[in-house]
Amino acid sequence: MPIRDKNEVLKREDIQQIQLERLQATLNRVYRNVSFYQNLFNKAGIDPEKIDSLSELSKIPFTTKDSLLQNQPYGMFALPLREVVRLQSSSGTTREPIVVGYTQNDIEHWTELVARVLVAVGVTREDVVQISFDYGLFTGALGFHYGAERVGATVIPCSRLEAEKQISIMKNYRTTVLICSPSFALHVVDIISKRGISPAEFTLRIALLGSEPWSEAVRKEIEDVLHITALDNYGLSEIIGPGVSVECQEKNGLHIFEDHFIPEIIDPETGQNLSDGETGELVLTTITKEAFPMIRYRTGDLTGLDHSRCPCGRTMVRMSRVFERTDDVVIFQGIKVIPSRIEQILAEIESTKPHYRLKVDRTRSLEELEVWVEISDNIFFDEVKKLNALREKIEKKLEEAFGFFIRVKLVEPMSIQKWRNSGT
Ligand code: DLL
Fold first, then answer.
1. What is the pLDDT of residues 165-193, one digit of tens each?
2. Fewest CB atoms within 10 Å of the CB: 44, 190, 320, 372?
3. How much distance in Å is there from the Cα of 183 to the middle of ligand 1?
4. What is the pTM of this model?
5. What is the 3-state secondary structure (H, E, C) of 129-179?
6. 67 C-alpha vs ligand 1 centroid, how far in Å?
């Protein structure tokens, strides 16, 4: 299988040499230009000039999402806005999204990284690539758009057109590669199965899916129904967007582009570094970003690293697929649902208690998100009319806040505490 960049097959010591040089340059730059990092390093007694091995990175304190929120919108930028050619943001509509910026060089690196992702899953200039992510502040669509054009493929910028229309485009324009979230791919699968449309009517061969967790069962279903290969890719806006790591055709972990990002796995409780094979929180340091560099950023994503040889030939470390986070953020249709936001909404509604349980069925459709909400004792469970009105009211409020429908199930007082205490 073709490999786009010679850095993807470097010997370990050569990768490490590049990482060290780029890390030193980045640390010096953030120390000079970002007051957050200057204070952080000063407090921790870190002299960036004296970091002369990769192992010393672990002496530097972490950067967290809260630090980013406190420094919005431009406090973490390492360059003045006049050098920044693009702003995007993280996809959370449920919490203040993080504004991220790119210089022209950052855009160039990003384009190349996404081109590597596409080449790794088998995309060539012969392909017709349909991008079904939202073209907006979300990093997914534009990131893939530039990368796919760089590979020379034919790009269809579908954005979030409704699934029915996307399916006709897929058929009529002879799409060969679909880039979207796993939940959208499942939606397509559902429609195709329901209508009894044969996969032979399509020319699709690859689905490149990411931006939310998806199981092996979901992969199997998408592959079986559409007669294609479905591969995973991972990224986050704070680091660059898509283009951080990609699953090669071995389907045995996602290669992280280590010449741009240094990965570490830590124990989320103690912050200590963990070894290969152990599962913990992924921490990433960017070493080529100019506008928005991140030092030891805690992603909140749980994974493990594997440095063993991959038959695809890439020498870049692999991370295992991300199925879980350290926080209780639920990712649904690419939107990060922050539970505390649900709590706020429930607190504003009479007759409910802020006790709730969020349920997503990961074994099959990610379409089904349900919140179980406890009612307060002043409303009786047999007052059906009242209960229905209450349920509808909560569903409406949630839909207004999150932008999609979340089913609400009302449960009796105390039942959620009982469930939590039982530890199930
Ligand atoms: O979701 C960037 C992206 C777009 C990646 C398109 C891949 C494809 P954010 O909106 O900032 O950026 O969300 C980042 O999404 O911390 C993970 O929790 C989750 N996530 C992203 N990719 C995967 C994946 C984009 N393949 C957050 N598997 C991350 C599981 C994923 N979770």
1. 999 999 999 999 999 999 899 889 989 99
2. 44
3. 13
4. 0.87
5. EEECCCCCCEHHHHHHHHHHHHHCCEEEECCCCCHHHHHHHHHHCCCCEEE
6. 20
